Amino acid sequence: MNGTGVAVVGVAESDLGVTDQPILGLQTQAITRALDDAGLALRDVDGLATTGISRFSATQLADWLGIQPKWTDSTFAGGSAYEMYVARAAQAIRAGQAETVLVSFASNQRSARSRSLGGVVEAHTPEAQFETPYAPLYPLSYYAMAAQRYLHEFGATRDQLAEIAVAAREWALLNPKAFRYGAGPLTVEDVLASPMISSPLTTADCCLVTDGGGAVVLTSSERARDLRRTPVEVLGYGERTTNTSMTAVDDLTLTGAVGSSADALVRAGLSISDIDVIEVYDSFTITVALTLEALGVCGRGEALDFIQDGRIRPGGQLPLNTNGGGLSYCHPGQYGVLLLVEAVRQLRGECGPRQVAGARTALAHGTGGILSTHATVILGVDR
Question: Total domain count for the chain?
């Protein structure tokens, strides 16, 4: 395996679910727990990447923490931002701009009832002219259009798509921190019978709305060898930004994950068949199907056939979203940081009954907006 010379040395979640905590309180929980996981202190942090607090997210968080970092990033790209931050952090560490970078996010959207289904759309944009008049639910209606097109173009069925939600629940039943832990198994029939929100997607095809957050600590591989945990090397990364509106998309079934994952794998010197664990953004069931195809796990239009017969459930051939994902574990509005937390824990062998035996490589892929931004990170451990 190739490497970037940068490693993840600490990860943690904040409290999850319904917390009644402010955003900065949840941020503090995730950050202090991740630093403790790494055996580091706040005074060691000289790089900071976060978003979702305000227009000056990194500034506000740095002020709250009482630090003055040498390097910050507040790029807003939705759920893929945290995989982007890992790439930028690796570049900053290698360039000597920072020694220890903290990537974090938190949201209290469930307890604060702050989840928004829309936003301000500037006049004269394609969205204002061709999309807003139809009052779509953002982002749900857009993903529903992608799902509708996918089922039509490839002759797939709703039953097949439902398997993604069913598998996510099976993983969540192995994760005590999952929102749906203890809720019992989900069946294909349950998914199809749940309320229709935006055809063809029902409530069970949609991610959770929860509080929560996470943090990831990165430093040089050389320094990582002297710290508390097994270093998890950043092997490769890639990203693509494709569209703001659906008006600009030629093919709703083909996403920028094709390019981002190809770049990440080339940098890592690996192929997709070399990856032991895959953590992908599952804002909706269709997001998973499109992403698996874009990663090269299977061919175009083949994902829903590919995942049948328990292939992505616990014990299946393709360990996917092993914490239960955004569908059954946690979704605080921007889920990408928690993809990284689970990938690192799998590679460190810390996942108990959901542990993938002998996992040495992991892929985390974030998706933001309405299939708008795409970022892939490849991680690995030397056993």
Answer: 1
Q: Is residue 335 assigned to a domain?
A: yes
The residues, ordered by sequence, that sit 6+ positions from 266 with a Cβ below 8 Å of its Cβ are 236, 238
Question: Looking at the DSSP assignment, which residues form a beta bridge with residue 374?
Answer: 240, 367
C-alpha span between 208 and 212 (Å, rounded): 11
**DSSP at 111:** T
Q: What is the mean pLDDT of the chain?
A: 95
Q: Is residue 300 part of a domain?
A: yes
Q: Domain for residue 199, yes or no?
A: no
Q: Which residues of the chain have pLDDT under 70?
A: 1, 115-122, 383
Q: Is 329 a catalytic residue?
A: yes
DSSP-derived secondary structure letter, 216: E
Catalytic residue among 138, 143, 150, 329: 329
Quote the domain boundaries for residue 90.
Answer: 6-112+208-380
356 in a domain, yes or no?
yes
pTM of the model: 0.97
CATH of the domain at 340: 3.40.47.10
**Residue 73, phi then psi, degrees to nearest 5:** -150, 130
pLDDT digits (tens, 9 = 90+) for 114-156: 765 555 566 778 888 888 888 889 999 999 999 999 999 999 9
Find the distance separating the first CA and the last CA of the chain, reported in whole Å. 12
CB 239 within 8 A of CB 376: yes
Measure the CA–CA gap between 279 and 319, rounded to whole angstroms.
8
